[in-house]
């Protein structure tokens, strides 16, 4: 009797110790991730992050503003545009039709559309799902322009294939718009209605959908971008304000622009893990590495998911997406039962794309220290220009290296800012100095010499313009030769 009491007591103490250790570890991880995101927020980061391990949410938090003007902060309940993370829902809807016995992934699109031309008649649903249909990534128009379903289909069928169907991976949004057309044709429902009934409702997702809103619009995150011409941050508004008000949304639907929260996306992750929406066999097919995304074969495309491996040789099932302002990343470390969900409404730069992966590094490497997202580089340069005269342009690279904590190596940024200033400056000033600095930093780029020549011409410095265009021609800049010939004739 005493022995059994000792065993029970020992077991209780052991589990209590393990629980305390786990809580302490999770608290340390929370603080580490939170510190990284808070430091990023001081540089302008704005968004939401959820991190969960083995079914336990470690962090679910908002940073920055959902609506700056009305001082509405981001929170786990804030609704964002999730970009191409949408594709996993479109793919799941198609697979739901497969489960229902209504279609097969081997079906050819010509069996659904009589107008399919001969070059596209053998394209299969599988090829649409895996971006191997051969369709161009330029097929279809700008996502927020109006286009009927008939208009999109006409453009899809009349477009020129970039490769023979089934032979080459090429990511193209039109694949998923076509899948949506098939989905609506087969199901007899709208895209949004089918997803709500078959995906979102079973997963208990109440703040997710395409266009439809059943909650306060104050929960919608505004998108913000730095306008380099106006030299200030600009409120783009919400996705709902830009999508066509009618059903002529066929440049957007299926491939992107679903809105959701990190809370709902986590519910989706749980529903997938528990086979509450799709069977385990279907999920295995969806998360299979069907086709290589690159020549190095380090990443593969499944059905609406990208499949890769960590340095520890464990599986990652992920997808990101953006409309140019919002950026979302949904990363599932499936072998470890870890998920990181990240969405931002302020794209500061390339580092904004790495947040989920940086958090992943912190989760699996206790010694890893992430560098906070730096401020927007255009904003930084404008700040430097406001506090320095153009004669101090040579100090700019060191200023940027200090602020970015990395060497400045982007050829295009000073070029873009140079042209922005060129429109405003009638006399030589920052525009000319930015172009001159750019060719000094990247002397082998002929396009930059061409831009410098254009600036010299504006300020009537013809001799220097000829030198710049001559250098551009030597470096193979297309179009520079004709301008150089014209200048030489004038002499």
TrEMBL record:
TPR repeats, residue ranges: 446-479
Alphabetical UniProt keywords:
Hydrolase, Signal, TPR repeat
Give all residue intervals belonging to the Beta-lactamase-related domain.
Answer: 44-352
Extract one GO molecular function annotation from the record.
hydrolase activity
Q: Which residues form the signal peptide?
A: 1-22
Query: What PROSITE patterns has UniProt attached to this entry?
Result: TPR
For this entry, the protein name equals Serine hydrolase
